[in-house]
UniProtKB/TrEMBL annotation:
ATP-binding is among the record's keywords: no
Protein name (database record): DUF2029 domain-containing protein
Keywords from the named record: Membrane, Transmembrane, Transmembrane helix
Record has Transmembrane helix as a keyword: yes
Membrane-spanning intervals of the chain: 6-25, 40-62, 90-108, 115-131, 151-178, 190-214, 220-239, 275-294, 314-338, 345-366, 386-407
Amino acid sequence: MPIIEVFIAKLIAMSLAFVAQYILWKKYASFQTWLTQNQIGVVSALVVLTRIIPFILVFVILKEEPRGDVPFFYYKASHAVHLDLVYRDFWSFHAPIFSYIIALPLLIVDHASSIVALMMVGELICVWLTYKHYQTVSSEAYAKLLHYLMLPAPIIICLLGGQEDIWLWGFALGALMIWKKSNSDFRMGLMFALSLLCLKVTVAFFLFPLFFLIKDKFKFILSMAVVGIPSLALLYYLVGWDFLMLIKHTEDPYSPNLFSVLRPLIGASVNITKMNWLGLGLFLPLATWIGFSVRNKSFVQAFPLLFILTYGLMQLFLPSAMAYYMFIYLVVIVFELWQHKDGKFLFVLLLLNFLLIVEPFVYVYHNNPVFDSFTKLSNAGYALEYLLQWAFVITLIYVLRVCYLRLKALPEVAQK
């Protein structure tokens, strides 16, 4: 299907989703009793309508090929399913186990769409765990679950982009749940160590600010070392230094981020890899400082807010960050920052969804433009893309400000 037709289909789906969002928000109180009494049926129906039917329509009936990162994922999974050795026999910028995880559905159906199905299952598990976590602290958790399932951006990002980024939150939430149940920093550390082996190096970014809220820091570090040192030794034994490709920074700029919108002021003569390291050197100390400044806050309450701030700042400061990175923490924004009666923030959520769907298309449609001078903005299409980037960056900054103020407003807990 031509890209413009795909985009029109996205716009139609987005419009229908926005109408459904508004109706649910306005009428939720009237139907709350019925929706709550039929929770399993309602949630199942939404999953079928927003995930399963679109999957069947796109990949079974229309026989579309998966897009986004999925072709590269399929390349890796096709090697991993034959037990080829990651980093030595095939390329991967993910953690060592990731390629073997995404190879599992190929044992059932050897097609790239199988990986998309796995991503959708992974997303639903993360969303359900998020709901179960917030169900214990918020009476609005069920309403937020319904709203999230009807947001158009996660559907499109997962279905057409095959993104796994929400798994970072799923593993982090799993670590938090383990801590809540066992009160063990060691066990929580084991879960984070596992996520570093299964996902990508960006998992480590969150550990810097989180470290200051951890009570028994020695046991946490010990658990990471217990898993990490033998794993690194085994990787070195098997593939030598080739495993370092998992920390390789991209040499291509993406959008939207602070670098992309400020690029006309910076100019063309820029090394993107060095700018990525500069962005890392800016956002990671800032996120770490925020973690240090709230070290006396409730661990459970501060955890999701720090998660949003860490990856939101990453998205702002890294030149290689793209819009879809918000999939890492969008579900946390919905459950943590939005009060269901707050129509203003619902508008912000829908605006983010609009930008997450429209900006990437305009960016790709105009061949990934780099605005290294203001003269390029004389082109109407380029000017539209530049305005969309600014809209996204400003909206993201607003969300991060709300998150930061919420974090600072948390009451301090007594230190034992």
